[in-house]
Design goal:
The chain is of the alpha/beta class. It contains 14 helices and 14 strands. The protein has 2 domains: about 200 residues, Rossmann fold, CATH 3.40.50.2300; about 150 residues, Rossmann fold. About 35% of the residues lie in helices and about 20% in strands. The strands form 3 sheets. A 7-stranded mixed sheet has the order 7-6-8-9-10-13-14, sandwiched between helices. A 5-stranded parallel sheet has the order 2-1-3-4-5, sandwiched between helices. Helix 1 runs parallel beside helix 4, helix 3 packs parallel to helix 4 and helix 13 packs across helix 14. It comes from Roseobacter cerasinus. Belongs to the leucine-binding protein family.
Length: about 375
């Protein structure tokens, strides 16, 4: 850990927390610019806050969403967390990667404030390093298992895994968990290949696939757009007609755009994701409602900010308190917390991650369809 981060942590211990009572403040130091901007939750959080405030707020208190750009810089995120805490924030969100979430949570700890990250799936956050953290979704082993189970049901046997260390366990280990479930189900991992984010030429990896000498049923990658779209096109051009399978990084409107001219491009694509995002889903309705209010929420990831706001509002209403430690305790002990993306979530048994179903999204005629939505019971345990 950098000295500057340690200094920031040390300084927070000297600060006496003071929390405003007239508003309920949520502080989001998140990527509003840069590569991770499409995955920040601030638009959905602001829209949900406006919806709740329009109905009179929570016990007469308005929800105020404090937002500033952290880009992809951990030190900026820590500084913004400190700023928001000093302004009375009772909950925080930050860059959704463990190397930022952990130090930000440590900064917030002396204030009794928790991090609520609505779309963080990294397993590092559940290792007991911190105890003031919630994620509104389930960790990557669950999404990997849901995708693998659907693959097996559809006759997938031989798979190639694509891994990268650049996205932490999300891109490095999620493919391995997928492969573990495939092999437990009688399939085979033919090869594990490395890649880097921002790849525009997949020919080295494709050459290795073609040299395997076996039919490839599926290629699994936990990555983001546009990388995934480029990979899909180059696989098809090379004559590899395997399923292209992934995780929540596929859940981007630009993936759907690939099928605009040729819907068949998406016929053999599916991914396990954070929440149902097909046409009839609550997410799509929420995005449309926000647009009617003049707020653009560009996709699932920004929409998940609504879950943060709903969980915070529910905890304040249930407890009758804006004390952050009370808010944390109320969320952690609840049997059921209503959110936007699914009917409800709970942390009572899991403590830091939400118990919820894992949807798998596929395509029919270029349009999203929900093809599976379950809580897997065969998730790998080595995390």
């Amino acid at each position: 850990m950098k000295k500057s981060i340690l200094a920031a942590l040390a300084c927070t211990a000297l600060v006496t927390p003071a929390f405003a009572q007239d508003t309920i403040k949520l502080g989001l130091g998140v990527p509003m610019t840069g590569d991770y901007a499409p995955y920040a939750e601030w638009q959905g959080a602001r829209c949900m806050a406006e919806m709740i405030n329009a109905e009179g707020g929570v016990d007469g208190k308005m929800i105020e969403v404090l937002v500033q750009d952290a880009a992809a810089d951990t030190q900026t995120a820590i500084s913004l967390a400190q700023k928001f805490l000093d302004e009375g924030a009772v909950m925080l969100g930050t860059i959704p990667f463990s190397d930022t979430m952990i130090p930000v949570a440590q900064v917030a700890q002396s204030y009794g404030v928790s991090i609520f990250q609505p779309q963080s799936t990294q397993v590092e956050m559940h290792a007991g390093i911190i105890d003031n953290f919630f994620t509104g979704v389930s960790p990557d082993p669950f999404t990997a298992t849901a995708a693998a189970n659907y693959a097996l049901e559809n006759g997938v046997k031989n798979v190639v895994l694509m891994t990268s260390d650049e996205g932490g366990s999300w891109s490095a280990k999620t493919p391995l968990w997928f492969g573990e479930v495939i092999e437990a189900g009688g399939g085979k991992v033919l090869s594990t290949l490395n890649f880097s984010f921002g790849t525009s030429d997949w020919s080295p990896q494709i050459a290795e696939m073609r040299a395997l000498g076996d039919d490839i049923d599926a290629v699994y990658i936990s990555s983001i757009m546009p990388d995934v779209g480029v990979l899909m096109r180059q696989l098809r051009s090379a004559g590899i007609d395997a399923w292209v399978v992934g995780s929540d990084g596929f859940d981007d409107p630009s993936l759907d755009a690939i099928g605009a001219d040729d819907p068949s491009m998406l016929d053999k694509v599916f991914f396990a994701t954070l929440a149902p995002s097909h046409a009839e889903s609550a997410v799509v309705k929420f995005i449309a409602d926000c647009k009617d209010m003049g707020i653009e929420v560009p996709g699932l990831f920004p929409a998940t900010g609504a879950d943060t706001v709903k969980a915070l509002a529910w905890a304040v209403e249930q407890s009758g308190s804006t004390d952050p430690a009370t808010i944390t305790q109320t969320i952690r002990e609840a049997d059921s917390i209503p959110v936007m993306t699914v009917d409800s979530i709970s942390f009572k048994e899991t403590k830091t991650y939400a118990q919820r179903t894992i949807p798998v999204i596929g395509f029919k005629d270029g349009k999203r369809v929900l093809i599976s939505n379950e809580i897997p019971d065969n998730t790998p345990t080595d995390w």
